[in-house]
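Issue 218. Parser rejects a valid record. Input:
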Amino acid sequence: MLVQIPGLLSPQALQQCRDMLAGAPWTDGRVTAGTQSAQVKNNWQLPEQSPQCQALRPVIADALNQNPLFLSAALPKRIFPPLFNRYEGAHNTFGNHIDNAIRYCPVTGQRIRTDLSATVFLSDPDSYEGGELVIEDTYGQHAVKLAAGDMVLYPGSSLHRVEPVTSGVRMAAFFWIESLVRETERRRLLFEMDMAIVELRSTQGDCPPAINLTGCYHNLLRMWAEV
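Output the parser choked on:
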């Protein structure tokens, strides 16, 4: 399931990210890559201990916690603190790879299962050429290049890549989510049911069908969630 979340970051939060990243100390992005990923990763990454990274992580986290669409689609249990990357010049691409299944979070000391991967676009799409995030699933390839402040959420098990940036600069935040519901299909069914409930309530209010569907949703979540 691939979900686009428009306007995750407010204009103010987006500008804050851009201002702080403008003078950031970028380093080789392979520092956080796995064995296979390191062979195809060629970009810049913001060091986790840098002041900019430490200051911007809460900005992304606050936006996630306030976004109903993200909460419904991801059903987050744990979120890996966001990382930040930059593609430009000779450091401009990330070839086909699958994200590590488990990541260690030095901030919390926990290990996180990467059920979902997420990218928040920080650069205007018309400010750089190339740089599409290409995600492969059973329905083929999906090239994603969103407006600044938008996010895409997709299964961590997906083969994906970032196409070469041939001009300009592409900056983004990226991270992983361990969901309360491990199975992708169960998460998809719950998301679709929740969206149907939201639409029904917006037109019919708290009518008996909406109340019944809400009960079914929570009973399924109670059955499938790992807390």
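Fixed in the parser; the record now loads. The chain has five helices and 17 strands.
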